[in-house]
Amino acid sequence: MGKLTRTYREVLAVVIAVAAWLCPVVANARAFNKVDVERFNDLGIKEQARIIAYFINNNMQDSALLYSNLQVNNLLSKERLTEEESMHCSASLYYMGLLYMNYYYNYQLGAKYFLKSKQIAQKYDLKAQYAVAVDFLAILNATRNNLEKNYAYSPELMGYFKGSFKVLSDYLSSVKSPKYDESSEFNACMGNMVYLAIKYDRVDEVMDEIKVFRSIKTRHTFNTTYDHTFCKIADCWQNGQYEQALELLEPSVLDYHEMYKSDSITHKQVAEILKYYILMKSNRVKDAENQLLMLEKESKRVNMTFELLEVLNMLQLHYDQQGNEALARKYELQYYTTKDEFIAKSMLNKIDEAALDLRLEESNEQMNEMKYEQRIHKIMLWGLSVFALMALIILAIVFANNRKIRKKNEILYKRTIELLQTQPVEQPEPEAARPLQDEPSQNALLERICKVMETSPEVYGESFTINRLAELVDSNRNYVSQVINDRKQCNFNAMLNDYRIKEACRRLLDTEHYGGYTIEGIARSVGFKSRTNFAAVFKDITGLTPSAFQKMSGQQ
Questions:
Q1: Tens of pLDDT along 50-103?
Q2: Measured between alpha carbons, how far is 298 from 52 in angstroms, rounded to an integer?
Q3: Are both 277 and 147 inside the same structural domain?
Q4: CATH number for the domain that contains residue 254
Q5: 172-227 tens-digit pLDDT
Q6: Is 246 within the bounds of a domain?
C-alpha cells in the first residue's frame, strides 16, 4: 500500500509539473488574440516571432500583418541590427509581402515589402533570406507578365523562375541542412517551372534544372514529394506517357496539403490545370473541356480571382481551337472584364512604383543621418516656397493648356463624326497614272475594292492581307496595289488602318452593343494585335487618343 501511494504521488507530481508547464503555453496561445501593442513591443524578438507565426498558421491575416508591421518598424528604427534581428526583420518583411499579394491582392505593396526584405538580406549578408525574397519577386513578376501578355508564352516568364532557381540552388548547395522555408521555396520554384514547361510544351527547356533539383533533393533528403512528383510528370510528358502522368496527379498520389496547408487549394488548382494540358496532349478533347468547366466553377466558388483569370483565358483559347466562335467570344469578354477589375484592385500596374518608393525611402534615411538639421530645414523651407510658387505657375499654365486642348479635341471629335457620317469620296485620277495591263478599268476595280472594304467582316480580322483583298475582288496583288496607290494616294496598310479606325470609332460610339468592351477589346475586334499600335494609329488618323475620343463621346 505504501508503495502504491508513493507511485501515485510520483504520478501526481508529474501531472502537476506538466500542467504547470502547459498552462502558460495555453494561456499565451489564447492571449495571442488579445495582444496589445504595448505588451508586444516589450517582448523579445523570438517571442514576437512566435506570436506572428501563430497568427499566420491560424489564417489570422489581419493580426499577422499588424504585428509583423510593428516588429519591422521597431527593428528598422535601430541604427544597426544583430544577426538574429536582421533575420527576423527580413522574414517579417517577406511575410508581409506574401500577405498583401496572396490575401489582399495588393501587388504594389507586395512588391514593396519583397524588395525591402531583399535589401535587408543584402545589407546583412543573409543568403537564405535573400534567396527566398528573390523567389517571391519572381512569382510576382511572373504574375504581372502573365496578365500583360494575356498568358501567352514569353522568354521572360520562364526566365524569372530560372533566375530564382539558380539563386536557391546555389544557396542550398552551400549549406549542410537547410531550413523548412528554404527547402519549401526551392520545391515551389521547381514546381512553377515544370508547370510552365508543360503548359507551353517546353519541357525540354527545364530538364537541366530537373537534374539539379534531384541532385540537391537527394543530398538534403527533403521530405516533400509534391514537386518531385511534378518532375516525374515532366518525364512522362517527354516520353509520351500521358496516362501515367494523369495517374500521378490523382489525390491519392499527390498530397496537396504537404507543403503548406494554407496553400492546399492553390496546389490543387495547379494540378487540375495540368490535367487539362495532359488531356489535350492525349487528344481527349471532351474530357479536357469538362476539366476546364469544372475549374471555372471551382475558382468562382473559392473566390480565386487570379486563378479564374487563367481559366477564362484557357476557355477562350480552347473554344477558338474548336471553332466555337460564340463561346470563345463569351469567355474573351469575361476574361477582359475580370482582368480590368483585378488589375485595378491589385494595383498590378504600379509594381514598378514600389522600387521607386524604396529608393525614395533610402534617400530619406540618408537625409535623416545628416548632422546639419537646421540648415537642411531652412533649405527645405525655401525649397518648398519656391516649389509652391512654381506649382501655382505650372497649374495656371496647365489649366490654360487644358482649355486649348479641350477645344481642339472637340473640333477633332466633331470632324471625326462628320467623316463617319459621310460616304468615302473617290479620289481624282492623277495625271501620270499608270494604266492597268489586264484590267478593263481602274474605276471598276476601285469600286470593287471599296465595296469589300466597306462590307466584308474579314477586313477586321488580324490575318487580313492585300493578297486576301485581291482574291475577294477577283484580281491580283499588283493590280490592287497599283489602284490603291494611284487612286487612294496611299498604300494598302494605310487604307486598311483608315477603315479599321473608322469602324473602331463607330464601335466606341455604339454603347448598346460594345459598351462592355474595353479599349483593348475594341482594338482586337477590328484587327489590331496590340493596344499600343491601335492607339498610335487612332491618334494619327483622328488626332485624338481612343480614351479621349471615348470621353468626348460621353460628353455629347
A1: 888 888 778 788 888 888 888 888 888 888 888 888 888 888 888 888 788 777
A2: 31
A3: yes
A4: 1.25.40.10
A5: 888 877 775 677 778 888 888 888 889 899 999 999 998 988 888 777 665 556 66
A6: yes
Out of 245, 264, 281, a domain closes at: 281
Q: Three-state SS string across 74-136, please? A: HHHCCCCCCHHHHHHHHHHHHHHHHHHHHCCCCHHHHHHHHHHHHHHHHHCCCHHHHHHHHHH
Is 308 within 8 Å of 68 (Cβ atoms)?
Answer: no
Long-range own/partner contacts, residues 205-208 (CB < 8 A, 24 or more apart): 205/158, 206/158, 206/234, 207/234, 207/238
Q: Rg of the chain's alpha carbons, rounded to an integer?
A: 32
Q: Rounded to the nearest 10 degrees, how much is the dihedral formed by the CA atoms of 170, 176, 177, 182?
A: -10
Sorting pLDDT into bands at 50, 70 and 90, what band is 270?
confident
pLDDT of residue 237 exceeding 90: yes
Question: Number of structural domains, the chain?
Answer: 4
| Beta-carbon contacts of residue 157 (< 8 Å; ≥ 6 apart) | 142, 145, 146, 149, 196
C-alpha cell at 297: 466553377
- For residues 21 and 153, membership in a common domain is answered with no
Kindly state whether residues 40 and 11 are assigned to the same domain.
no
> How does DSSP assign 1-42, residue by residue?
-HHHHHHHHHHHHHHHHHHHHHHHHHHHHHHGGG--HHHHHH
Largest CA distance in the chain: 131
Neighbours of 281 (CB within 10 A): 15
Tell me, yes or no, whether 352 and 451 share the same domain: no
Say if 265 falls within a structural domain: yes
Quote the pLDDT of residue 354. Answer: 55
With respect to residue 368, please indicate whether it lies within any of the assigned structural domains: no
Stated length of the chain = 556
Neighbours of 62 (CB within 10 A): 11
Could you tell me the CATH number of the domain that includes residue 501? 1.10.10.60
pTM of the model: 0.52
User: Of 337, 361, 385, which closes a domain?
Assistant: 361
Return the pLDDT at 278.
Answer: 92
Assess whether 149 and 102 both reside in one domain.
yes
Same domain, 431 and 504: yes
What is the DSSP secondary structure assignment for residue 487, as one 8-state letter?
Answer: I
- Among candidates 248, 250, 268, which has minimal Cα distance to 258? 268
Q: Give whole-number Cα distances, 513 to 103, 284, 456, 510, 526, in Å.
A: 36, 36, 19, 6, 14
* Residues 63, 21 share a domain: no
Rounded Cα gap, residues 482 and 455, in angstroms = 22
Rounded to an integer, what distance in angstroms lies between the CA atom of residue 538 and that of residue 172?
A: 53
User: Residue 306 corresponds to which cell in the numbers above?
Assistant: 487570379
Q: CB 72: neighbour CB atoms within 10 A?
A: 22
Does 451 share its domain with 482?
yes
DSSP 8-state code for residue 283: T
| Residue-range definition of the domain harbouring residue 342 | 284-361
Q: Are 315 and 292 in contact (CB under 8 A)?
A: yes
Q: Is residue 384 part of a domain?
A: no
